[in-house]
Amino acid sequence: MKFRFVAAVLMIVVLSVSLAAAQDGYTAPAPAFNPVPLNEGAQAVCANLNWDGTTTPRIAYMPPATEFPYYMAIGEGIKAKAPELGVETFMLAPQSGSDIAGQMGMIQDVLTQGVNAIILSTHDEGAAAPLVKQAVEQGIAVIIVNSDIPNFPTPVHGVVGYSQRKGTFNLGNFAAGMVGGTAKVGVLEGLPGYHSTERIGGFLDAFKQFPGMEIVATLPTEWNVDTGNKAMADMLQAHPEITVVVTANDYISIGAAAAAQAAGRSDVLIFGNDGDTTGLEDIAAGRWTATVNTTPFVMGQVVLQVAKDCLDGIYPGGWVETPTVVVNKSNVMEYICKPETLFPPLAGTYECPAS
């Protein structure tokens, strides 16, 4: 027994050293950062997969819902990159982000369709974990996208996405600076789970540095415009002293901005997270204040390359971080003037310098 224990420990050490060495030698697709290891026990190895290299690989993109244009922008990045990599891609998702059971049923279906990789984003990691485990056991590469989760409940081959807490921490500092570190703050969360916790947590971490940034109300939403609108209306009615509102995504902010306008509250500063096309246009028009632009189209291109690198056996695993930037009215045109990286297309027309 002692020999087996020592051998097992040595095997873990060798695997960890090999993974670290491989990560040192792997260059992530631009403009992403090179991968960092996932937590111990969270990493599946890109080996013994069901793709033998002789056929066109089939890769399923499975976002949590089609109701969010943000995930469609990731999908457009995937679609644009696919011909260059010689892969076949398709998307499958429920309409509603709250339809967890619907997404789980779709994952089950995909496991019978001969796919070689799944690019997955889910609002319920716990519900998805047993199905992800099945996929990995079948030799399907599983890459989590639009996340930075270092310890998905079951091992995955990779994670691609931005640092959610870091992004909103930076935006929280920006928000506090705009109001001199003193404001009554309202918080609009997403559905309970890792994503909402991290995004709202970044704002709250930033505000802890400023004793004058007082959280006076927190309400949940379902990540969408309608529930963001209702929650904002309720919040402003109950707490008219609020002058700063932070949200878990741009759709909540879009709804919140409409509610603030309807209430005649042009004094409320609203801060979101995503870099959604409509959100960027709203910021350009002065409807709300600022967001963390996570460049979803670019994220889609990066994650497809990572998935293909895993199938090719050259991706060492870990989390590949994609870049973020705080966007407000002063710099939003830099992104609006790159319409080829936006989805859905811009609703307005804009004067941009000739490229």
A few lines on this structure:
The protein has 355 residues and is of the alpha/beta class.
Biggest sheet: strand arrangement = 2-1-3-4-5-11
CATH topology (level 3) name of the largest domain: Rossmann fold
Return the string of H and E elements.
HEHEHEHEEHEHEHEHEHEHEEH
| Derived structural class | alpha/beta
Radius of gyration based on Cα positions: 21 Å
Residue windows where pLDDT falls under 50 for at least 5 positions: 1-22
Q: How would you state the average pLDDT, rounded?
A: 92
CATH architecture of the largest domain: 3-Layer(aba) Sandwich
In one word, what is the shape?
globular
Overall helicity: 40-55%
| Total of helices | 11
Q: What percentage of amino acids are in beta strands?
A: 5-15%
Q: CATH top level of the largest domain?
A: Alpha Beta
Taken together, the total number of domains comes to 2
Largest sheet: 6 strands, parallel
What would CATH call the homologous superfamily of the largest domain? Response regulator
Number of strands: 12
Q: Report how far apart the termini are.
A: 68 Å
Which structural traits does this protein have?
12 strands, 355 residues, single chain, alpha/beta, Rossmann fold, four-stranded parallel β-sheet, 2 domains
